[in-house]
C-alpha cells in the first residue's frame, strides 16, 4: 500500500502552528537558582523559617545558635530544589519523547490523528470525501464522513495550485462546541458557506483516506478539543489541605504557648528576676519586666518553632515520590502486549488514591477494547458458536478470508460446505445488507470501511465463511459466493435510523430473483415477521436470550422474496416520495413500513463488544470496596447500557434501573424525584436526617451527606436530560438521586458535560473522585477529578498527557487503588501521625522547662541535638516506615476490598487523630521532662559528685527522647525490612556516635565555642541511675500505647480490624488460590443495535458519490472451497 | 492472550523492553519481619516490665534508705551575717557564724559535704551563656565577643578574669566542720580537690601559660564580686589555683534547676575519721560571704553518703514501684478482658 504523507497546509504562516506546541520547561540553567528560591520562599513553611532566621539575628531575642535554623533550612531548600529540577527535566523530557506535534506525519498510513482544527480542502477519495473516526472526541467508534467544498476539491493534490490558493475564511471565535461550526469562505469574489461537515477537528483520526489537504482554522489552545479540555488546575490532596489547616492550628498553638511563657516571664522577672539582678542584671535596654516578657515571646517562638516542622513538607514530598516510583515499577501493572508500564505522572497525589469514593469512567477504549467480534449466531433454529476455547476454524479454503477472524464452531463451516440453504442465505444476507465500503488495493487484500464496527464484524464473518463482499457500485454489489463471483443488482437501500432500528436492501440476484434482506433489533423485527415463522421465532428467542445473557449484542436477520410487479409499483412510488417536496421523510418511512412486513426469519447474530480483560472482575472488586462507578460516555444509550450489563455494572438483581430521558426541565425533575421517591420515600420529609444535616451545613459549601437507598438501583441519564439536570436548581436533585444509586451511566454526554458531572460530585459530596479515560474527550474530566487516570498504549495521547496516572488496562485500576493507593494512604497517615507526635514530644519539653528556668527561653537540649533531631536522628526511620510499611500484603488487600473503606472515610488521619497525636505528644513530653527532673533532683552521682548540672540533664533528656521516639517508630512499623532495621538501629547508633564525637576533647579544643558539652556523655552515661531514668521514661511512654492499641483492637474493633484478624487466622492456613471466578450473569434479553445514531451511508451509496472507479480485481477473483488450484497457491 | 500477536517492533530497531525489573525492592516484596500485637506479646511485655520495675524499685528504695544525709539550712541561722551582706558596701567585712548539730550514730563510709542553694536560677538562659569558654581554656580570647556582658571589662577597659555572670556570682562561703570531742575541738580534715569531673579539670579548664600564675593573669582584674583575684583561689596548691580551682570548676558547671547542690568537700578518712564521721557533736563554722536574702534564696550545708544509685532521693525508687504495680495491674486487667471476650466469642460460635 502506498503511503502518502498528509499535508495540512497553513495559510496564515507558521505563526499559528508555533502556538500549537506548548512550552513545558520552567527553568533554564541560569534562572534556576533565583527562580526556584523565589518559588520556594513562597511556600509558607519556608517563609516561616526565613522569618525565624531573621529573628535569630536580633541579639536580644536570639535564643538559639544560628545554625539550628540555617542547617535544616538549607537542607530543605536543597532537597526541594533538586526535586524541582528533576521534575522540570523529566517534564520536558516527557514532552520531547512524544510523537512530534508536527503537521505532516509519515509513519502511520491510513490512520493519522489530526492536530489542529482544519477546513477540509481536498482528499484522495472521490468527491473529496474523508473518513474520520471521532472516538477520541466523543467516544463514538463508527466512521464518519466529511466532504470538502467542490471549489476546493478541484485543487486536488496539485501543490502548485494549493500554494496559490487565495481566499478568505471568516469564522466564529474559538469555542467549545464540537458539533457546530459556521463560517464563510470567500474565493474569487464568491462566498461559500462553511459548516461542521467540512471541518476536521483536532483529536479525530483520519481513516481509509490516502491523503487530504486542509486549511488550519484553529490551532493550539484555540482548537475545539482544547477549548473543551477545561482548565488545568494545580491538584492538591485532601491531606495537603488538612495539613495546611493543621499547620495553622499549630501556629496558633505555638502562639498560645509563647504567650503563656511570655506572661510567665513577665511575672517571673517582676517577682524574682528583678531581685536576682544582683547576680544577673537585666539585659541591656531591658528596663521592665513586661518588655522582657515581650522579647521572650519571640525568643520562645524561635525555640518552639519545631512544633511546625519544616521538614514535614519535604518528607511528604519524598514519601510521595517514593510511592510513585513503586507504581512505575510494578510489574503487575505492566502490559506486555504493547510494552507499557504504569506511570505515575504526578507524584504528589498518591495517598488520595487510597481514598477514592467515586470513579468516573469512559466507556470506549476504557471499559471496552473497541473491537467487535462475531461470536455466535443462530441460523434456522440452530445455535452456533461455542463458549470457551476450542480449535480455531480453518478458513484456508477461502483465499479471501480475513486471517484475524477467529471462530470456534466447526459445525457452521460444515453446514456452509454442505450447501445448507438457510445457512447460505444467512451469510448472503450478511454480505449484501450493509453500507460497508470495500477497498482492494492488492488482489485478495480486502479492507472494509464500515460505518460501525458491528457492521464490519458481520461482513467480515460472512467473508470468512465464503460470502465475500468484494465490490460495490451504486447499482451493484459484487459478492464472491463460495468461490463464484456474483453480481447483485442493488435496487434500494432502506436505510437505518433511530426510530426504525433496522435496515434493508432490495437486490436482484443474477438469477433474477428479487429479494429484500433486512436486519435489525429483535423487538422491532419480531413484529414484522410472517406468521409461518412462529415456531422458528420461539427457538430463535431462546437463542437470543442465551446470547443476551452473555451480554452479546444481537441482531435479527430476515428476508422476503418480492413479487416483480409489486416491486415495480413500489419503486415508482418510492421515487415519487423521494422527490416529493413536502413530508418526504414521512412518506418514505411509510413506504418502508409497507414493504418490510411478512418477513421470513433467518436467524440472529451475536456480536461481542469486547471488554478489556478483567473489567467485570475489577468492577466487582471496586464495588466491594464501596466505590461508586459512574460511566460517562459519548456513545448512545443502548450501547452504554449494554456495556453496563456486560461488565456487570447493571444486572438483573437490581431493584430498578431508572432511565432519565426527559426533554424538558420539568420532565427531568419529575423523573429524578420519582426515582428518589422509590429509592427512599422518607427523603422528602423534613424529618429526614439528610435533610436536617443538609440544612445545617453552611450556606457556602453545601455538603450532601451519604444516603442509603432501600435497595440496589441504577440510573441512566442521557445527554439532553443531563444538560437540564446540570442547571442550577436541578443540580441538587441530580446529585441526591444519582448518589443513592449504585451505578450511574450517562450517555451522549459532551466532554464538557463529563467535567461538569465530576465537578458536581466534587462540589456536593465530600468525596475523592477519580476519572479514567483514554480519549481526548476525557481530558476535561481527567483534569477536573481529584485524580485523573489515562489509559495509555493506544493511539491518542491526549488523555495520558493530562492524566496523573496512566496504565494500559482498566483492570490495573484495582491494583492502583487497592494496593498502591491503600498503602500510600496508610503510609502517609502513619507518617503524619508519627511526625506530629515526635515533634510535639520534642518541643513541649522546652515548654515545661520554661516553668523551671525562669521562662528564660533556655533550651532543654544541646543546640546540636536540636539541629540534628529532625534531619538526622529521626528522619530515616520514619521515611523507612513510610516507604516500606505494609499492614497486609497485596494479595490480601485485593482479596478483601473492604480494607479500602477506612481510607474513604478518612479514618486514619483527620483532626481527631491529630488531636490524639498531640495529646500523646504532650503526655510523652511530660514524662520526658519530669522523670529526668525527678531522678536528678537533690541527688548525686554514685561517686558523690553533683549530677544535676544543666549539661547532664540535657544529655539525659535528649537520650530519653530519642530512644522513646525510636521505640515508638518501632511500634508503628509493622513491616520490618532490612532497610527499616538498618535505619532504626542506624539512627540510634549515629546518635551515640555523633554525641560522643561532639562531646569529645578534640572537638572542644578545636571548636571551643561550638561544643561546650565536652565530657558530658562520658560522665553522665556511665551513671546507673541515668539509665534507670531512661528506661523508666521509655516504659512510661510506650507501654500505655501498647496496651491502648491492643485493647482498642479488642474492645472496639473497626471493620478493618476484623478483616485483619480474619487475615491473620487465614494466614495460618495455606494461601488461597488467586481469585478467578467466572461471573454469572442473569439473562434478560436486551437487544443492541450498534449503529450510529446518525443516518447511515445508504443515501451516499445510492447516489454513488463515494464510489471510486471499479476495483480492478472485483471481477477476477474466483475460488472454490474444492478447488485444488487455490490450495496450492495459498501455500 | 497468547494468540494475539505481540507489538510489532517499530522502526526496525529493537527497543529495550520497558518492563520494570523484577527485584524484591521494586516489587515491594522485600522479606520482612511482621511483628503484631498478640495477646502473648502484650501480656508478656506488661508482666515482665511490671516485675522488672517492681524489683528495681524495691532495690532503689532500699539503697536510697541506706543513705545517711544531714541537711542544714543556714540562711536563717546566720541572720546577722545575711543582714550584713545585704548592704554591698560591707563587702570587705568578715562575718562568721557557727551551727551545731549532733550525730547520734556515726556516719560510716565516705562522707561528702555539699552546699545547696535554693531559688538560685543558674539555669536562666542569659546566665548560662554568660561565660567565655575560650578564656577559661587559658586562651587569649576576645571576651568582648562572648556573652559575658555586663561582666566583661571594667570601665577603664581592664578585662575581668574570669568574665561573665556565672564566674562573678561564684559561691564564696567557706564552711569548716569541727568535731567536738570532750570539750576539745578537732577540725574534720576535708579534701578540696578531686571533686570535679576529670574532663573539666584537665580539658575544659586551663590556666594561661606563663612562668607563674600571677603573671599569667597580669592585665586582668578579678570579677567585681570577688574578694580576691583568680590566681589566689588556692594559694597552697598550685594545681588547684586559677581557673583549675575545683570550687570554681564546680560552680561553673551550672545547674539545670534553681534548687541544686554542689559538692564542696569530702571527708578525708584519716585518724578518728577513718571509718567516716563518728557519733558526737559537730559544729559548722561558716564564713558568710554569699548574699542570698535579696532574691529570697536559701543556703544549705549537707553531709551525705552515697550508694550505687546516688543519694537519698527516693523518687526513682517510688516511680519504679508505682510503674511496676501499674503495669502488673494493667496486665491482669488485660488478661481478664481478653478471657471475657474469648468466652463471649466461643459462646456466640456455639
Automatic annotation (TrEMBL), chain A:
EC number: 7.6.2.1
PROSITE patterns: ATPASE_E1_E2
Recorded GO MF terms: ATP binding; ATP hydrolysis activity; ATPase-coupled intramembrane lipid transporter activity; magnesium ion binding
Topology with respect to the bilayer: Multi-pass membrane protein
A single GO cellular-component term on record: trans-Golgi network
Compositional bias per record (Polar residues), positions renumbered to this chain: 1113-1123
Residues holding Mg(2+): 362, 364, 774, 778
One Pfam family recorded for the sequence: Cation_ATPase
Transmembrane regions: 64-82, 245-268, 288-314, 834-852, 864-884, 913-933, 953-971, 983-1006, 1026-1046
Needed co-factor(s): Mg(2+)
UniProt-listed GO biological process terms: Golgi organization; phospholipid translocation
P-type ATPase N-terminal domain sequence ranges: 19-70
Catalytic activity: ATP + H2O + phospholipidSide 1 = ADP + phosphate + phospholipidSide 2
InterPro entries linked to this entry: ATPase_P-typ_cyto_dom_N (IPR023299), ATPase_P-typ_P_site (IPR018303), ATPase_P-typ_TM_dom_sf (IPR023298), ATPase_P-typ_transduc_dom_A_sf (IPR008250), HAD-like_sf (IPR036412), HAD_sf (IPR023214), P-type_ATPase_IV (IPR006539), P-type_ATPase_N (IPR032631)
Chief location category: membrane
Domain P-type ATPase C-terminal: 800-1054
First-level EC class: translocase
Domain of life: Eukaryota
NCBIfam families associated with the record: ATPase-Plipid, ATPase_P-type
Name of the protein: Phospholipid-transporting ATPase
Species for this entry: Calidris pygmaea (Spoon-billed sandpiper)
TrEMBL record, chain B:
Protein name (record): Cell cycle control protein
Stretches the record annotates as Disordered: 1-22
Main location: membrane
Keywords: Glycoprotein, Membrane, Transmembrane, Transmembrane helix
GO cellular component: endoplasmic reticulum; Golgi apparatus; plasma membrane
Superkingdom classification of source: Eukaryota
PANTHER family assigned to the protein according to its UniProt record, in alphabetical order: CELL CYCLE CONTROL PROTEIN 50, CELL CYCLE CONTROL PROTEIN 50C
Family (UniProt): Belongs to the CDC50/LEM3 family.
TM region positions: 37-64, 315-339
InterPro entries, A to Z: CDC50/LEM3_fam (IPR005045)
Location in or out of the cell: Membrane
GO BP field: phospholipid translocation
Source organism: Calidris pygmaea (Spoon-billed sandpiper)
